[in-house]
Specification:
The protein has 20 helices and 6 strands. It is mainly alpha-helical. The chain folds into 3 domains: 103 residues, Fumarase C, Chain B, domain 1 (Orthogonal Bundle); 248 residues, Fumarase C, Chain A, domain 2; 66 residues, Ribonucleotide Reductase Protein R1, domain 1. A hairpin with a 2-residue loop joins β1 and β2.
Length: 455
């Protein structure tokens, strides 16, 4: 059966294929090969730029232009050529080396130094840097903008509903009121912090040979300071050098990266569940979309499907990212290949998160607060003012304030008049009594509105 969006095994490349286009350029097999090609080219350029490697003379403008052409014009067709070579080599990185030698063979100057392509490198030197570049580009182009857009959207809703009073629910039960905007503001702060931590993860790389000691490099050029040479090369790629490694870069930074992303995703799972609950309670209405069906049998339904879809995809993302973070830093002795297959699933883990971000953006765009329903909930729960009353009683030294309010309110609803009758019987200053008598659940929100406005 031919591979199409209908026959794909993963929904990332099937049902949701039209939503993951940008990731394909970065995290696919093509993306990996593209980054490998770039690393190999930059390594040859670095050798040519060094006086300590006289056999690779400085590149002419013509030679530099040819190498840049190869890097910039590398497309799916070129990647297919690499895969054709791999059918013979049965080695993916060696196929890239042979591909590049093929592409520079007709250039007189470059053909003379083609054996310095992949000079002294083990495959992992190229692979680890390629994956590092992949993760950096994925973070800059997709993940950080996605999280920023979500945070901005939630902040916009938070400011919009900054003053909209809402009955809180702790343990699912009526509790001291807040505002809808302030509850959204909590997620804005949480997301911003996780986004910052993801942005701060240093993306590492190594280029130090078969077991991390520059053995081959020093055999060929014993007078070159290879640790310094490699460090400057890695920094030139926009990465941070890993000080000591085996054959592989230990992937600790990847665990930090994936854990940071998982924490952001977990905050969003919490957000989706809260919004789902608010929709269920009627605090939020969802704007209807013409032609959309909520149920195959119940025509009245407008389901919170965007938040359900997002929660499911965030769970899938975190399951994959958690395995990546737990497996990749573990390798037997100087090298085993258990990381190779696992690394190829980076794009799958990221893609499920990206699908969720899009669903949340779509879902939040449909939300409208139902002020009447929110107000009715508050009016039906005057007992939540018991906290305010007993706290004022404490201030003025009345006996057993908590216990008195517990007897009046615990486990049952009370009407406004019953609470006011209780307040009128309190031996407290007139100003304090008047303030309590004037209080309603809707205005007992502390500084919630200020917190929302200050996002």
């Amino acid at each position: 059966m031919q591979l199409t969006s209908l026959s794909a095994l993963s929904p990332v490349d099937g049902r949701y294929a039209d939503k993951t286009w940008e990731l394909r350029e970065i995290c696919s097999e093509y993306g990996l090969i593209r980054f490998r090609v770039l690393v190999e080219i930059r390594w040859l350029e670095a050798l040519a730029a060094s006086d300590a490697i006289p056999e690779v003379t400085p590149l002419s403008t013509s030679a530099q232009d040819r190498l840049e052409q190869i890097a910039e014009n590398f497309d799916i067709d070129e990647a297919q050529r690499v895969k054709q070579i791999e059918q013979t080599t049965n080695h993916d990185v060696k196929a890239v080396e042979y591909y590049l030698k093929e592409r520079i063979g007709a250039h007189e100057e470059l053909s003379k130094v083609k054996e310095f392509m992949h000079f002294a490198c083990t495959s992992e030197d190229i692979n680890n840097l390629a994956y590092a570049l992949m993760l950096r580009e994925c973070r800059e182009r997709v993940l950080l903008p996605g999280l920023e857009n979500l945070t901005a959207r939630i902040a916009e809703l938070g400011r919009m509903y900054a003053e909209q009073p809402m009955l809180s629910r702790t343990h699912g039960q009526p509790a001291s009121p807040t505002t809808l905007g302030k509850e959204l503001a909590v997620f804005v702060h949480r997301l911003a912090r996780q986004r910052e931590q993801l942005a701060d993860v240093r993306i590492m790389g190594k280029l130090n040979g078969a077991t991390g000691n520059w053995n081959a490099h020093m055999a060929a050029y014993p007078d070159v300071d290879w640790p310094d040479f490699s460090a400057r090369f890695i920094e030139g790629l926009g990465l941070s050098p890993t000080p000591a490694t085996t054959q592989i870069e230990p992937h600790d930074f990847m665990a930090e990266y994936f854990h940071a992303l998982m924490r952001a995703n977990t905050v969003l799972i919490d957000f989706c569940r809260d919004v789902w609950g608010y929709v269920s309670l009627g605090y939020f209405r969802q704007r209807m979309v013409d032609g959309e069906v909520g149920s195959s049998t119940m025509p009245h339904k407008v389901n919170p499907i965007d938040f359900e879809n997002a929660e499911g995809n965030l769970g899938m993302a975190n399951a994959i990212l958690d395995h990546l973070a737990g497996k990749l830093p573990v390798s037997r002795w100087q090298r085993d290949l258990t990381d190779s297959t696992v690394l190829r699933n980076i794009g799958v883990g990221v893609a499920h998160g990206v699908l969720a971000y899009e669903s949340i953006m779509k879902g939040t765009g449909k939300l409208e607060a139902d002020a009447w329903r929110l107000g009715r909930e508050l009016d039906d729960n005057w007992e939540v003012l018991g906290e305010a009353v007993q706290t004022v009683m404490r201030r003025y030294g009345l006996p057993e304030p908590y216990e008195q309010l517990k007897r009046l309110t615990r486990g049952r609803r009370i009407e406004r008049d019953a609470l006011r009758e209780f307040i009128n019987g309190l031996d407290i200053p007139v100003e304090a009594r008047d303030r309590l008598l004037a209080m309603t659940p809707a205005d007992y929100v502390g500084n919630a509105a200020d917190q929302a406005r200050d996002i």
